[in-house]
TrEMBL record:
Keywords: Signal. It comes from Marinobacterium marinum. Pfam families: DctP (PF03480). GO terms for biological process: transmembrane transport. Residues 1-24 form the signal peptide. This is TRAP transporter substrate-binding protein.
Amino acid sequence: MKMLFKSASVATLLTLGVCTAAQAADVTLRFSHFWPAVSPNHTEVFQAWADSVESASNGRIEVEVYPGSTLAKPPAQYDAVINRIADMTATVQGYTANRFPLTQIVELPGMVEDARQGSCVVQSLYDEGLIADEYKDTRPLFLFTHGQGHLHLKGKVVEKPEDLAGLRIRRPTSVAGKLLEGLDAAPVGMPAPASYQSMQRGVINGVALPWEGVKAFRINELADSHTEIGGLYSLSFVVTMNTSVYDRLPEDLQQVINDHSGLSWARKAGDVFDKADAAGRADAVAAGHTIVTIEGGANNPAWKPVLDAASEEYINDLEAKGLPARQVYERARELAEQCR
């Protein structure tokens, strides 16, 4: 009797083991990014992408998402994918200086109206091959932008360019930094997650961020004044994958990844950013903050000469290095109209 019970137990365990093995994923992808786990960027873009991939692959691809820079610091996210610390990431191209100079043309003033449109621009530049050479060391899945970046300050109100003189402003990338330098501000380079602590300690007077970032990184808890200069700048992002990891997938699973790449996912990311922008601004309004909206945005006569000069300097610098910056810039301007 004991022998019968033991045999039945072993059979049951073996059956469970077979079922478990059958349900196990063929591959697990570690997806790293720096946004907080509570942000809509994490829940509605990256985790949503992971869930969709798992479903489309019938569970054969498992995606473990690591938010909040748990696998790598923000500036190291791209290299973490190259070095297999992570299998894929969502990151800012401009956090690795001089690696994506043509991509960063979309950061220039007047290029992006909102995240959906900007995402269409940068994804189209990639799809047309104009910036594809900058990504030879990974496999990009989709590119996108945030909406318009603005200025958010504590104890200061900026209404005209002169008001920025000497103010220490967090800048996201060197391109945005050049714009701020032209306005006589003192740009301080740092990734978005470091902004709160730096502003809290008085290291900086304010930040350049979209409204989405103000909410995601809790800047509205510190800032009391916001200056909207429509078209001041925007940032580009990429979701990209280790090439060898992709190449080792069977063809049908590669197709699942391919189906979760390109313009449709770029636009989905843009839509989430645009919704988050509205939420971040609404928080500032509810808190009674001062919001200054510059008439005409980057085309305002008081701001335009400085911003135009910074754009020309950036393009000319790249041309001097033998890069087709003018061609990419002109095509980006055309796409900016087409992608509305």
